[in-house]
Amino acid sequence: IQDSKKGCKSSDICAVGTGESRNSAERNARVAISKIFNTKIDSKFNSSLKASGKDAEEQVSEEITEATES
User: Fold this and answer.
1) pLDDT score recorded for residue 9
2) 47 pLDDT more than 90
């Protein structure tokens, strides 16, 4: 396939890749598509431990935020 518009729905993201084999061409096409997007991932992890005598209390929280831009 030399034209990404052939066999590609208007709602799909398509690319054409070149390579010495079909696998190589498909991989290069996926790389070309991935260059369109930018993903930012933020992760926060909090842990606290409170001890008083023989008693202990542990609290754990985690927050993950992902934003993809094109």
Assistant:
1) 81
2) yes
3-state secondary structure the chain: CCCCCCCCCCCCCCCCCCCCCHHHHHHHHHHHHHCCCEEEEEEEEEEEEEEECCEEEEEEEEEEEEEEEC
Find tokens 């054409």 and name the residue.
16
Query: How many Å apart are CA 42 and CA 22, to the nearest integer?
Result: 36
Task: Give mean pLDDT, residues 33-52.
Answer: 88
Apex CA 65: angle with CA 57 and CA 68, to 5°?
170
Q: Which residue has the tokens 């034209």?
A: 3
